[in-house]
Amino acid sequence: MTYTLWIIVTGCLVGLTCGITGAILVLRKMAMIADAISHTVLLGIVGAFFVTQSLNGLPMVIGAAIVGLLTAFFVETLNRSGVQSDAAIGVVFTSLFALGVVLIAFIGDQVHLDVQHALMGEIAFVPWDTLQINGVSYGPVAVWMLGGVLVINVLFIVIFYKEIKISTFDPQFAVLIGVPVVFIHYLLMTMVSLSTVASFDSVGAILVVAMLIVPGATAYLLTDKFFVLLCLSGAIGILAALMGYGGAIYFNVSIAGSMASATGVLFLIAFLFSPKHGIVFKRVRTT
């Protein structure tokens, strides 16, 4: 595959992986927890580097997943202790992310990891970091990570589809019929953590939030069916990646930033012209 095609494939995988996962967050009104986790996983990545002296492979994923779960646990603990949900997210998010930023200073020049890279990422560099086995290149590491996480997330959704759906729409009823609501909650947080760290190199901590939230919010305006929403959110993520890459090439701007901006354009279109919730159609029906 060509250099350009690898970038497009990576962007589409980011949109699909984050879109499917983020749609559930939007339905559960937990969109801002994605913002927190997408930043705090930096601490897990830096911690994994201190242990293994490497930013590649399974240790990075494990480190990020652990910190992602800790983020969700701390937010839930503070919320149950009387701290407002948004304030709890703000406290945990800023504290753990700041700690990760501080620890980056101790890495120095050993690896290419700085605050700008952590926040913005650079998808244009992805095709150069390839998986090498016995001297044979099997494509970018990011593609393998994103593909693996996508398979894991889809398996989780398929296996626990009923539990996720019931606990999302009626958590009280889910508790009454014995659905493990707490387990489903942390399972979702694990999915978000894995999606975030897999997308980290491609779009960075800030832009991954757009891919996690905006496609799901856009799909929410277009359908009321859970399964359709999941599929549509993933499709919107892919479309945003394709539109963003085309825009980045045409205007000579950041590829990852252009892809995230494309999600905003698609949301605006849905917000205005959605058959059921669109502002334009609502005004037409009332006239």
UniProtKB/TrEMBL annotation:
Transmembrane residue ranges: 6-26, 33-51, 57-75, 87-107, 141-161, 173-197, 203-222, 227-245, 251-273
InterPro entries noted in UniProt: ABC_BtuC-like, ABC_TroCD
CDD domains reported in the protein's UniProt record: TM_ABC_iron-siderophores_like (cd06550)
Main location: membrane
Source organism superkingdom: Bacteria
UniProt cross-references to Gene3D superfamilies, sorted A to Z: ABC transporter involved in vitamin B12 uptake, BtuC (1.10.3470.10)
Keywords: Cell membrane, Membrane, Transmembrane, Transmembrane helix, Transport
Pfam families: ABC-3
Membrane topology: Multi-pass membrane protein
Subcellular location: Cell membrane
Family, per entry: Belongs to the ABC-3 integral membrane protein family.
Protein name as annotated: Metal ABC transporter permease
